[in-house]
Specification:
Blueprint lengths: L6 H22 L1 H10 L1 H24 L2 H15 L1
Helix pairs in contact: 1-2, 1-3, 3-4
Amino acid sequence: MEGHCSASVVDYLGNLLRPPVLGLRALVDRASFVAEGRRNCRAVLLMGAVTPLADVPVLHAAQLAPLSHVAPAREVSMLLLL
């Protein structure tokens, strides 16, 4: 279909915009942010590395198949991972 963005462009823009938005939250309560970061440093780094591996295939699948098929499959997979 025409008018769709590449999955990698969507992922790149999300990664580009995420730090400023989350950074504002960190500025509001810096002490709590630093303490939480120290407690969960490994988990944060792992999720930061693994999340794109999950998001990019879903975005790519949304280009190939109807979103009404892709979105429910992604939501069910998120439930299974929790």
